[in-house]
Automatic annotation (TrEMBL):
InterPro entries: Ig-like_fold, Ig_E-set, Papain-like_cys_pep_sf, Transglutaminase, Transglutaminase-like, Transglutaminase-like_sf, Transglutaminase_animal, Transglutaminase_AS. It catalyses: L-glutaminyl-[protein] + L-lysyl-[protein] = [protein]-L-lysyl-N(6)-5-L-glutamyl-[protein] + NH4(+). Coiled coil: none annotated. The active site is at C359, H418, D441. It is a lipid-anchor. Its cofactor is Ca(2+). It comes from the Eukaryota. This is Protein-glutamine gamma-glutamyltransferase K. The lineage of its organism: Eukaryota, Metazoa, Chordata, Craniata, Vertebrata. GO terms for cellular component: membrane. It is found in: Membrane. Residues 1-33 are annotated as: Disordered. It comes from Electrophorus electricus. Interacts with PLAAT4. Belongs to the transglutaminase superfamily. Transglutaminase family.
């Protein structure tokens, strides 16, 4: 039985047995003289005894008992333990239902981990069973769970979690609910929030009954491991497609590409994220980073930490890099074929860096750690990969006056190939549409904020040349899309640009295809087609933020304005989306440009889903002319593309031919959905049935299926789902809702629509609830009495009722 503390009286908190002697592990209480009278304590003494029990212990015939492990309490030789257990509520055992084949592990997609620990994903419920000393009484007993992670758990930091028992789970926070009770056994359903800290938690259970309290001691075999959850829509690592989650989270083998762009080789890599001991090794890597556990709920922060800890130069991380060709004292990088031995060796030897690694080894180990913790990740190979050492965002080659290379200045380089990682996550710290795949590089090349690491850098930001975005976007941009610039030294020691090579880096960017061992080219995710105007705009935009912004020159004038306007309140769902593109020439000269437009669906988290429509069109402007271009997105183009709470983003870009001015604009807009109209029917009174009419019109030219209206109102009624069924195109549905108000005053009746084809439809109405007539009569009667009494006894006062 776990060690616990029980008492019959509050004074047991003293932790001693007054008048007791110990014998053979038993506490025997002395019998008070029968003739001694018990005096009733006064208020002051009772208060003083509670304030300082050590100084003022009671003298009474009652028993103050603190249980000792495996000890029976007796009086006159009779055991009192059964009596105490009837009063106490003690947790005999905890079953976390953690078997690999069990419901918890299967529902959380953790049944492949070679461990019988409870491994779950945040933002999702799980079950556990408690075996108690007696049946749980929901009316008088209290119970809560304690979860702690890290060396110094604090509630304020989210590392000490108190999980209360609730009647209904809200799915937004830590909470537990009794879902089954059978005699002394209680089954709990426990929910964690989607932003819970990832790591290893120690569990204890606290129980309260009217007179006693007990806390189970921590059992090392009852730890709970919480991971990121790509299956949970509220988690920032949520990934929509099941086949992609299967590949980027659950696949424990993969392919890593190497060689040259014309001779691409492939090797199989065993990631082994589910292998026995790997989860513990990954958590050990986090502990070695000395990053506090409170920062382990944010995937952006976690990725940065892991990127730094996979290499060893500044924090004694997992792998020591070696490009010398001499691998004495370690394993040659080409000899590794998986991550398991590397991580287990690092863990087993107490954090001594493993020898040796190069880029594909760093990437393979990074993939293992990320997938093990639940972050969707893939290894990516870039052929002709640039290494920019001076943040110029160009690869610079220097010659002397005789066109001989100046080796001391030629520090930039281009690798035949380089392997890094893409990780999937939303980026709430960046502007919209920057979520999705993020580039992460664990190979130690350049420092980021003083540490050898790189990323996460938004691939969308890289593609658009927005190198001012965090983290390390300039370095990744230079790897895939920098130009090679040739410089010659002049007689006066200055340098002049003599040649520009535009298609020098970033070729055949490759990763393993989803669901097969084929190679897939993802170069178009990192940059626009080489040589296209969009690609040139991205390069020149990026270089303006580098150390050599003058390489491409500046526009001779910036006198053309570009603006997008919404008509009225914006487009409506089910209709064509119409926007106005306003282009204004503020100069006295003609201007011309070609505008590129692209509209894409984005999640509310800022992650891009799909491109809906792309087009390009010329714009010719006379001096001081303003043109308004009607832009239309037909309903048929977007009807099957929208997702829950999604919006559309229109991106415009172009260049003014005469001045080389770059035009760019991004506009996010949503398609307005109809409201549910709620109309009260008659007056509403407390305790008397009232009604309201709910009306909704389907705005789509197609039917809605399995429509459910959800109605609720504080003080009016609990949540009530109303099954409507199918609603035809442009059809109107009317439902009458009946409810019995429980509170007077102005209350709000809220309704929302639930169906697959249409989201974000809701409505609200104020319902004025009166007291029932009899109640009003009594209230008025007592108010009149109060006024009369006031006039009699307080004639001079300004007393107001």
């Amino acid at each position: 039985m776990p060690e616990s503390r029980t008492s019959v009286r509050d004074s047991s908190a003293v932790g001693r047995f007054h008048g007791a002697t110990a014998s053979n592990g038993q506490a025997v209480l002395e019998k008070e003289p029968a003739s001694k009278e018990v005096k009733e304590e006064g208020f002051c003494r009772r208060w003083f005894q509670k304030a300082c029990p050590c100084c003022c212990r009671r003298q009474s015939t009652s028993y103050d008992i603190t249980n000792e492990k495996d000890a029976d309490v007796t009086k006159n030789g009779e055991k009192l333990t059964p009596i105490l257990e009837q009063l106490s509520l003690i947790v005999r055992s905890v079953d976390l239902l953690s078997l690999k084949s069990g419901q918890n592990r299967r529902e959380h997609h953790t049944d492949r981990y070679q461990s019988d620990e409870l491994i779950i994903r945040r933002g999702q419920t799980f079950q556990m069973e408690l075996n108690l000393s007696r049946p749980f009484n929901i009316n008088t007993d209290k119970l809560y769970l304690d979860l702690k992670t890290g060396l110094l758990p604090l509630v304020s930091k989210g590392t000490h979690v108190i999980v209360p028992l609730v009647e209904e789970l809200q799915d937004l926070c830590w909470e537990a609910k009794i879902v089954e009770q059978n005699s002394n056994r209680v089954k709990l359903s426990v929910n964690s929030p989607a932003n819970a800290i990832v790591g290893k938690y120690k569990l204890s259970v606290t129980t309260h009954c009217p007179k006693r309290e007990s806390v189970t001691t921590h059992d090392p075999e009852k730890d709970i491991y919480i991971l990121f959850n790509p299956w949970c829509e509220e988690d920032t690592v949520y990934m929509e497609k099941d086949e992609e989650k299967e590949e980027y989270v659950l696949n424990d083998t993969g392919r890593i590409y190497y060689g040259t762009e014309k001779q691409i080789g492939a090797r199989t890599w065993n990631f082994g994220q589910f292998h026995e001991g790997i989860l513990e090794a990954c958590l050990y890597v986090l502990e070695k980073s000395e990053v506090p556990p409170s920062g382990r709920g944010d995937p952006v922060n976690m990725v940065r930490v892991i990127s730094a800890m996979i290499n060893s130069p500044d924090d004694h991380g997992v792998l020591e890099g070696n490009w010398s060709g001499n691998y004495a004292g370690g394993t040659p990088p080409t000899a590794w074929s998986g991550s398991v031995d590397i991580l287990k060796k690092y863990h087993r030897e107490g954090g001594v860096p493993v020898k040796y690694g190069q880029c594909w080894v760093f990437s393979g180990v990074t993939t293992t750690v990320m997938r093990c913790l639940g972050i969707p990740t893939r290894s990516v190979t870039n052929f002709q990969s640039a290494h920019d050492t001076d943040v110029s965002l160009t690869i610079d080659v220097y010659f002397d006056e005789n066109l001989e290379p100046i080796n001391d200045l030629n520090s930039d380089s281009v690798w035949n190939f380089h392997v890094w990682n893409d990780c999937w996550m939303a980026r709430p710290d960046l502007p919209p549409a920057m979520g999705g795949w993020q580039a992460v590089d664990s190979t130690p090349q350049e420092t980021s904020q003083g540490t050898f690491r790189c990323g996460p850098a938004s691939i969308t930001g890289v593609r658009m040349g927005q190198v001012y975005l965090m983290h390390d976007t300039p370095f990744v941009f230079a790897e895939v899309n920098s130009d090679k610039v040739y410089w010659q030294r002049n007689l006066d020691g200055t340098f002049s640009q003599i040649h520009l090579e535009k298609n020098a880096v970033g070729h055949c960017i490759s990763t393993k295809a989803v669901g097969s061992n084929e190679r897939v080219d993802i170069t178009d995710l990192y940059k626009h087609p080489e040589g296209s105007e969009e690609e040139r705009i991205a390069v020149e935009t990026a270089c303006r933020y580098g150390t050599k912004p003058y390489v491409y020159g500046s526009p001779t004038a910036e006198d053309v304005n570009l603006e997008v306007k919404l008509e009225g309140e914006g487009p409506r769902m089910g209709s064509d989306a119409r926007l106005e593109i306003c282009v204004k020439n503020q100069s006295a000269e003609p201007r011309s440009a070609i505008l590129h437009s692209k509209v894409a669906v984005i999640y509310y988290t800022g992650v891009l889903k799909d491109t809906v429509k792309s087009e390009r069109f010329p714009v010719e402007l006379m001096p001081n002319e303003e043109k308004v271009i009607d832009w239309v997105l037909p309903y048929q183009d977007y009807q099957n593309q929208l997702v829950d709470q999604a919006a559309l983003m229109l991106t415009l870009s172009g260049r003014v031919s005469e001045t080389k001015q770059v035009l760019a604009s991004q506009t996010i807009f949503r398609l307005r959905t109809p409201d549910i109209s709620i109309q009260p029917l008659g007056e509403a009174y407390v305790g008397k049935e009232a009604s309201a009419k709910l009306t909704f019109t389907n705005p789509l030219p197609c039917a809605l299926h399995n429509v459910v209206l959800r109605v609720e109102g504080l003080g009016l009624r609990n949540l009530h789902p109303i099954t409507v069924g199918d609603v035809g195109k442009h059809s109107t549905v009317t439902v009458t809702e009946h409810f019995i108000p429980s509170l007077a005053g102005t209350r709000k009746l809220v309704a929302s629509l639930d169906c697959k084809e249409l989201t974000q439809v809701h409505g609200v109405a104020d319902i004025v609830v009166y007291f029932f007539l009899a109640c009003q009569f009594l209230l008025k009667f007592f108010m009149n009495i109060s006024v009369n009494l006031t006039q009699i006894f307080l004639p001079q006062s300004n007393f107001i009722i």
